[in-house]
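Onboarding guide, step 5: your first structure request.
Type a short instruction followed by the sequence, for example:

Predict the 3D structure of this protein.
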Amino acid sequence: TVKNYLMGNFLSMIDGPFNWAETLRTLFAEHLSIDYLPALVEEVKSIDAARLQQLAQTYLQEEDLWTVVVGERPT
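The system replies with structure tokens like these:
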């Protein structure tokens, strides 16, 4: 599910000292407090499918997306 993917992604962000340092650097650069992290986890855990679809429709516009093809173009 999307929730599992996001939670796994979050866990990888804080797995190990270098990832944790990079996460802290990003928080600092974005002017976010350390409290943002647990709030993010709670938001992901509590979001439902309808809200997630609403967010996707708001922020993911087809004209802003790219298609990347790797390898030879099929003939």
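Each response can be followed by summary notes, for example: The mean pLDDT is 91.
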